[in-house]
Amino acid sequence: MKAWQVTQLGEPRNALVLSEVADPVPAAGQVVVKVLAVAANFPDALLCRGLYQIKPELPFTPGVELCGEVVAMGQEVTGFAVGDRVLGNPDLPHGGFAEYAVMSQHTTFHAPRVLEDAEAASLQIGYQTGWFGLHRRAGIQAGETLLVHAAAGGVGSAAIQLGKAAGARVIGVVGGPDKAEYARWLGADVVIDRHEQDFVEVVKEETGGRGADVIYDPVGGETYRRSTKCIAFEGRIVVVGFAGGEIQSATLNHALVKNYSILGLHWGLYNSKDPAAVQQCHAELTRLADAGRIKPLVSERLALGDIADGVQRLADGSTVGRLVCVI
Hints:
This protein has 327 residues and is an alpha/beta fold. Helices cover 31% and strands 27% of the residues.
């Protein structure tokens, strides 16, 4: 089969090589899927650079989120059958940037019928992260104001739709007019281009000086620090990641005097700490998709041969919306 392999660590355009490799074989508790579509995610770039928390031995195939068709099953697999259309997170080193991938049954889910392959491939990481961040960690309520940073990215775009589905008023922060237009398509009530406006001032103006009840931050660094200037009394800041490249330090006396909470979110831990909650989340996401309340918006569809270029552009921050390779 054809598969993109990381043969040496570095930038995706240099690290990824399209190769012919043996078809994978499932172990106990695993399924092999024919990849129908695979979404590009920032962790894929980090894997190429050797900067992700998981560091597979070279060579390996990235691609951490996919939609596929089950073609083979190992022993002890229950709940799936050959021919099922599924989505989820493949088991490295046999990731989704290939014609076939390997998945563990506990991170594999039936794909919602209402979503086509590219959309289903984009449902897992961003929407699960958003659901756990907004509902389980922040306890978002209808009528609250949600501020979403990097609102045109994978996790940010999901947070916009999930916030609207929860009845919140959503303010999205993006960088550039194309990303601003994408955030509006997603349903954001207010969109701020950080190159043109100060998001702190806009949030204060839009909330009558109160600030945002929930701030969803996958950027970190200076973005986090300035977010503390527009968080509401008893607000919640959900720390999702550090795409800006700087891990900030929290000023705890400021959290004390303003009565706000700082909430960390590492969604992947729920797969081992509370897998039942992940199953519950997928059921809720499926319900929302069936009701038309959420729908991943795929902005660019790639061929298999375009993956290295697409992941590089994602790493460089020059993409808008979700990039998905349809195989």
